[in-house]
Design goal:
globular, four-stranded mixed sheet, 8 strands, four-stranded antiparallel sheet, mainly beta, Immunoglobulin-like, 117 residues
Length: 117
């Protein structure tokens, strides 16, 4: 299945529909934008996997989630600057033949991630 992501809004107990996300490949410490997308009603990329197993390569990647923009869009009043603005997750792909799922659980005040299945 390649690379996928999923975001859950832990403040409201829902998928983070409408959150803006950017995917980067990181080479020699320099991020290169691959694509930007907006999460669908299920909190996932509307186009499916970010990479298939055939497209995925060994290396370092970065997902950047617009957490503050999402919560502002939901009407949550945030301080300026917000505690969490853009949440960047850097992660490594060691085995391109495996599925890497990178979920994010987010609120205006906290987040967590893990390698999902």
């Amino acid at each position: 299945m390649g690379l996928s992501t999923h975001v859950l809004d832990t403040m409201h107990g829902t998928p983070a529909a409408g959150m803006a996300v950017a995917l980067y490949e990181v080479k020699d410490g320099q991020p290169a934008l691959v694509r930007r997308f907006t999460l669908n009603a299920d909190g996932r990329n509307p186009d499916g996997p970010l990479y298939t197993n055939e497209q995925l390569r060994r290396g370092t990647y970065r997902l950047v989630f617009d957490v503050a923009g999402y919560f502002r869009g939901r009407g949550v009043q945030l301080p300026e600057p917000p505690f969490l603005d853009q949440v960047a997750l850097d992660f490594g792909i060691a085995h391109a033949d495996q599925h890497y799922h990178v979920p994010l659980l987010a609120s205006p005040w906290s987040y967590s991630t893990y390698r999902g299945s």
